[in-house]
Design brief:
The chain is rod-shaped and about 110 Å long. It has 190 residues and is an all-alpha fold. Helix 1 (9-17) crosses helix 2 and helix 7 crosses helix 8. The protein has helices at residues 9-17, 21-43, 46-62, 73-107, 112-131, 135-145, 151-158, 162-186. The two termini are 75 Å apart. The longest helix is centred in the middle third of the chain and has 35 residues, at 73-107. Helices cover 78% and strands 0% of the residues. The chain is built from eight helices and no strands. It folds into two domains: 2-107, Orthogonal Bundle (Rna Polymerase Sigma Factor, Chain: A), CATH 1.10.1740.10; 112-186, Orthogonal Bundle (Arc Repressor Mutant, subunit A), CATH 1.10.10.10. Residues 27-93 form the RNA polymerase sigma-70 region domain.
Length: 190
């Protein structure tokens, strides 16, 4: 391999095109240090700089048959490192934007699906508790809450006093509150 140290870059490129692994190893040894420093200075991250070098030299070997157009290998390699670094920086910015967007979404507390599920569960619990009310109280409560009738309209429809309607609705709300509070103790999701 030491015989390749005297070869010029164009000669090494020609040898690489002929699948000469020793010529490739010479190019790698010749440029890995300065290219690593170039990538590291731009990124400030050792691992990413190493990854960029690995990708660059892998691509160089894969495209070895197409390298005959390169007149200045060092300039080509520096530009390739620079382009890969810019790609990494662009990818990081995109990731940061995505993470910021996700963080803002989480911070805003907008868990729509969770709220809908809880709302449906609560509605189901309320409906089952209303169904457990005494028959007359249930009827008055449903006319008040579901039909949106006034106490006077309910009293007229059922031939009872306004005060009775008011008392029945009040009692129904009191019973429902107690039952729902009791359920909430055992099922804190409510």
């Amino acid at each position: 391999m030491s015989s390749f140290r005297q070869h010029s870059d164009p000669e090494l490129i020609a040898l690489i095109a002929k699948d000469n692994e020793f010529a490739f190893a010479e190019i790698y040894e010749r440029y890995k240090g300065v290219l690593y420093l170039h990538a590291y200075r731009m990124l400030g991250d050792e691992d990413e700089a190493k990854d960029i070098l690995q990708e660059l030299f892998t691509a160089l070997w894969v495209r070895r048959k197409e390298l005959n157009f390169i007149s200045a290998l060092s300039a080509y390699l520096y530009q390739a490192v620079r382009n890969r670094v810019l790609d990494v920086i662009a990818r990081k910015k995109t990731e940061e934007k995505y993470i910021d967007s996700l963080s803002q979404f989480i911070a805003s507390g907008e868990y729509i699906t969770d709220h809908k599920v809880r709302e449906n569960e609560l509605r189901s619990i309320i409906e089952s508790e209303v169904a457990r009310l005494p028959a007359k109280m249930k009827e008055i409560f449903e006319l008040s809450r579901e039909e949106n009738l006034s106490y006077k309209e309910i009293a007229d429809a059922l031939n009872i006093s306004d005060k009775t309607v008011k008392k029945q609705v009040s009692n129904a709300l009191k019973i429902l509150r107690q039952r729902i509070e009791m359920i909430a103790v055992y099922f804190p999701f409510v």
